[in-house]
Amino acid sequence: MLSSVSVIGLGKLGAPMAACFAARGFQVIAVDLDAQKVDAIGRGVPPVHEPGLAELLQECKGHLSATQDTEAAVRDSEATFIVVGTPSEPDGGFSLRYVIPTCEAIGRALRDKNSFHLVVLTSTVMPGSTGGEIKSVLERVSGKRCGEGFGLCYSPEFIALGTVIRDFYYPDFLLIGESDRRTGDILSEIYSRTCKNSPAIARMNFINAEITKLAVNTYITTKISYANMLARLCEKLPEADVSVVTNALGLDSRIGSKYLKGGVSYGGPCFPRDNRAFAALAERNGAFSDLAVATDRFNRAQIAAIADIVKNHQSGLQPIGILGLTYKPDTDVVEESFGLLLAQELASANLPVVVFDPSADLSRAFAAHKWVRIAASAEDCIAQSAPGCSRSAPARVFTPPSAWSSIAGARFRTWRVRRVSTTSASVPRLAPPSLWRPLPQRTRKPSAS
Ligand SMILES: NC(=O)c1ccc[n+]([C@@H]2O[C@H](COP(=O)([O-])OP(=O)(O)OC[C@H]3O[C@@H](n4cnc5c(N)ncnc54)[C@H](O)[C@@H]3O)[C@@H](O)[C@H]2O)c1
Description:
Bound molecules: nicotinamide-adenine-dinucleotide
Oligomer: single chain
CATH superfamily of the largest domain: NAD(P)-binding Rossmann-like Domain
Structural class: alpha/beta
Low-confidence stretches: 388-397, 399-449
Strand order of the largest sheet: 3-2-1-4-5-6-7-8
CATH architecture of the largest domain: 3-Layer(aba) Sandwich
Helix content: 25-40%
CATH class of the largest domain: Alpha Beta
Largest sheet: 8 strands, mixed
C-alpha cells in the first residue's frame, strides 16, 4: 500500500491538499518554488488563506515536510500530485508554462527510479494536454513509457475556496482520467483512504476527464446565469419576484435548487475562466459553443446592469459604498469578484466609490483606481457613503458576498444585492425589487456558494 506522496505547488489548492493527505496519515513532501511558502509549511503556518488550514497543519506535524526541490521530492515519494498554476491565455485556453517545467523535473527524477511512480495532474488543463504534451515530456525526459515505468492520471478537484478542506474530504464524486487500469486503481485507493465519505468514482480516459472538468463548471455558470436572466425579467414585471420563481423551479428534481438564485455575477478563479476555456476549446475545434459564449457575455453584462441601478440612485457627490469585495465568503480572493468589478465600473464612470472588506488586500486590488477610497471599517464605509447622516440614516451601500460574519453590529444578507443598514430604519431601495427582502433581525453568516 502506497504511503508517501509529493504535492507540487502550494497555492490555494495545493497547500490544503498537502495538509489533507498528511492529516490522513500519508507521508507528504510539499514543494513550491516560492521559498516563503516552503518556509511557512516548515513552520506549520498556512502559506495561503483557507479556513481550517492552520488547525490541520498542527494535526499533521511529523507527516508533512516542505522543499523547493521537485526532483528530490519525487525520488522520495511514491506518487506526485501536480497542482501548479495554469494561467489563462488570451483566447481563454490554459497555459502549461508552469506544468511543463514541473513535468521535466519529475521526468529527471523518474529516470533514476527503479520503482513504479504515479503522477497525478490536478491542475486544470485544456483537453488534449494530459495525453499530449504532458505525457510526452514525462516519457521523453524519464526515458520510460507511460503505463510501465510510471502511470499518469488527470484528476482535478471540485473544490470551492473557503471550503477546500471539507470539499476535499467529502467530494460529491471523484474524477479520474487514467493512462491504464493499474494506475487508476492506485489513485482510487489513495482517495479511498483520504476521503471521509464514499464518493462515486468516474474513471475514464484523459480527454473525457479533461472535458468533464470544464463541463461541470460551464454547466454551473449556465445555471447561475439562467437564474440571473430570470431576475432581470422579474425586475421588469410588477409584482414578479425571482426568488418565488426559483424556489419553485428548484423543487423539480430535474433542475434542483443549487446555484439557482437570482443575484450578482459569478466570479473567482475558476468559474469565469473554465467557462471561457470551454468556449475556446469549441472554437479551436470548430464546434458550436454559443451557450458558453452567451453565458460569459451575460455574466459581464450583469455588472453593468447592476451598476446602472446604482447610478440611478446616486445623488450628487455622495460616494457609493461597497461592502464585500471577495468573490465569496471565507476567502481573500477578489479575482473577477462582483464587488471589485462593480467598484471599477462605477469608478470608470467617475463616480466616487468607497469600499471595505476585512479579508481582501484592497490597496493592491485598487492600485490602478485612485478614485476608489478604502474605508477603515464597515461602519466607516457606511458613514462615508452617507455623510452627515446618523447611523440610522440611509446608506448607499451594496453588499456582495464576503466575510460578513466578521463584522459585528451590522446586519447583512448577502449573496445577492441587498439593501443594508446598521438599523432597521427604512433605507432607499438600491437593489432591484425582485432581489429585495426585509433584512433579518440578527447578524447572519451568508451561505457559501
Ligand atoms: N483555487 C481554486 O479554487 C482551484 C479549484 C480547482 C482547480 N484549481 C486549479 O488548480 C491549479 C492551481 O490553482 P491554485 O489556485 O492553487 O494556484 P496558485 O496560483 O494559488 O498556486 C500555484 C502554486 O504553484 C507554484 N508553482 C508554480 N510553478 C512551480 C514549479 N515549477 N514548481 C513548484 N511550484 C510551482 C506557485 O509558486 C504557486 O505557489 C490551477 O490549475 C487551477 O486552475 C484551482
